[in-house]
Amino acid sequence: MARSSSYSLIPSELSMAYGDEGIGAAKTQGKYWGIFICWLLGNGCLFGFNGMLTIEDYYTYLFPKYHPTRIITLTYQPFVLATTAIFTYHEAKVNTRMRNLAGYVLFFLSSFGVIILDVLSSGGGGIGPFIGVCIIAAALGIADGHVQGGMTGDLSLMCPEFVQSFFAGIAASGAITSALRFFTKAVFENSRDGLRKGAMLFSSISCFFALLCVLLYAFVFPKLPIVKFYRSRAASEGSLTVTADLAAGGIKSQPIPLAEETPVHAERLSNKQLVHQNMDYALDIFLIYILTLSIFPGFLAEDTGSHTLGSWYVLVLIASFNVSDLIGRYLPLIEQIKLTSRKGLLIAVVSRFLLIPAFYFTAKYGDQGWMIMLTALLGLSNGHLTVCVLTEAPKGYKGPEQNALGNLLVLFLLSGIFVGAVSDWLWLIGKGW
Q1: Neighbours of 117 (CB within 10 A)
Q2: Which of 174, 189, 402, 407 has the fewest CB within 10 Å, making it most exposed?
């Protein structure tokens, strides 16, 4: 499984463009701004969909016969998976800038659509509004298919901290929506009108985050010196996906030299070769999300019984997962506990499946404290292992290969989410529809 050795080398084109001292400055200038912006871009990536999951008590109130938590998740998954698969196949020819911008704009329109649908239906239930909610969930899936793979591929050719921050932002969207849900539940009375006000607040905040991401990605992120450096390096190694982003940053990319002139730049492992060399990482990310989505959110929302927390119980469980998932995505910053061994990662991922019988018996015999602890462990391990895989896998490859590998790993991640969301229905065996 030999990898390209050119990762650690600085292409001669960059040495000529920046100079030796300029390269060192360009690789670090604007790094912390970049990390913060990546966090915000990750936050906007799933804020809309997490908002729909977090207001599940409102949708359960409106559509009690349709299992909205499970149906919304299951509607979302095929669209995000299909969109990501198409983009992954054509990754080398896709304009990454237009792909990501289109996704964030669609996030904004979908979140705005939740408000419009609720206004048109006057907050009523029934099959019509429920179909409308499912259509919006599908649109959010298409938007996610644009953004998550596009951003992961783009950030994979930069420093690992950007990927880590982007996925921490994705987890933060869940933690923030959970915190806001506690606030709205406490402020608004637990009635149909109170639930509706909370839902509209969520959708309004989702619109704001999506619009902020459009502006940040379009006008701020491409102009950071560190971002321009890494994209210039990727272009010098043969990447065509960064051309529009370089132009937005004020850099006109040079034509790629002919293969016979610079054969090292023209070489690029195919997607099949990349998958073959990273099959263990692909399996890791696939299994991580099969397990997570087979439990969260459907099982936690519908199959954990009633306890002294009452209507707050499900909200506490979802918040416990989201907060611990966010913490888990920052743990790899501590080098001593970051998993870098490929064999160690696989063992840790497979070991997580012991959580399935643990959740089953806790739901049947345990009290709410044990369930909250298990949910926190589920989120902590999900976040930690996700970041470990996605930051370790791209190391050792050239820019175009890193972009392709980032897209491929997200495809496996979303495939795991889809299979996990389907597997979540197995908990209903013996319980009826």
Answers
A1: 18
A2: 189
